[in-house]
Input
Amino acid sequence: MSNLTKIQDIAEHKIRIGGFNSFSFREIADEVGIKSSSVHYHFPTKLDLGLAVAKRYTDRFIDELKGHEDASLSLQLCIEMYIRVFETALKRDRKMCLCGLLAAESSNLPNALKSEARRFFQLNIEWLTNKFVELGHLDENSAKAKAIFYISSLEGALLTSQVNDDTTIFDATAKQLKALL
Amino acid sequence: MSNLTKIQDIAEHKIRIGGFNSFSFREIADEVGIKSSSVHYHFPTKLDLGLAVAKRYTDRFIDELKGHEDASLSLQLCIEMYIRVFETALKRDRKMCLCGLLAAESSNLPNALKSEARRFFQLNIEWLTNKFVELGHLDENSAKAKAIFYISSLEGALLTSQVNDDTTIFDATAKQLKALL
DNA sequence: GTCTATAATTTGATAGAC
DNA sequence: GTCTATCAAATTATAGAC
Output
């Protein structure tokens, strides 16, 4: 794996654990096995690194969503798949959603980074809204309200599970959301 | 107002905006109008300050909940009151829930601070569970699952509203939760 | 692309005077 | 309780050699 990729992987891990202010170029450099100046070669500023990581995270997330899409999927299966993508983030990685954490601290983030975190939410809301309109036959407004409700609940469930070191807390929320369809 | 109180107020503000790693003793001292060594007089370490602020936040939150309690309140009114406490945090303060933010970054926090954030969630879940049992006549397990669902959704709604600079996003979630009773 | 070296600033924290 | 003075360490970032 290239050092560029390693840098982004480690930065993503650290942001998802503690936020944008919780890591330094030196820590990343040490874990890669290079010097901090070499990290600056790839990403001139910390903001550049944060933006690249957030963009990559959102793009991958949306790609995974679209990758599991299937014209024959029912609303029920679509939403179950959607919930599973969040579930994986929690149970495999034992970490927060990167953009969820950035959203929480967004008032204190550079504008560009806040915008990138917002993009994650907007794309998710767009995707969910579409499903609720096309498969659930809701009107646009109701569909969007429901979409916001779903992503908010899932992000909150990650946060509550995290602080309680208890992934079954996520399951409790997931179950309620599925029952709501 | 005493400097001790001012220090805690400013620290609370900064944590709610950007998390535990987003402020320094010097910044707080500057805003109070004293020197950073004087802040250390009141709170020897940053952890001491964080713990005091988190404890105060949770105690006040629970006090407010109990203050609005009334034996004659229906489940509907109880939960509407509960949601209103979160709503106030967002619309009056335009900030995250302090313990919500600490929960998000809890994997990177000193254990004592993570525990204090966890206490907020446990007390909230306890309070909600009780209401669902006593006023909603749910069994203990269903009540607790519903309690977890409610606090998770509300915390997530704060986070989603924050990153979108749009308080109506919170309203969308609040409305769905009320409809669910 | 990675290194050494270094700059300028900030950080959490302490000692001791008043 | 607040101050001055100070510390050691860490931070983001740059210049220039290889």
Chain A touches chain B through 48 residues (CB under 8 Å). Residues 140-164 of chain A form the longest helix (25 residues). Residues 24-26, 36-37, 40, 44-46 of chain A lie near DNA strand D (CB under 10 Å from a C1'). Chain A has nine helices and no strands.
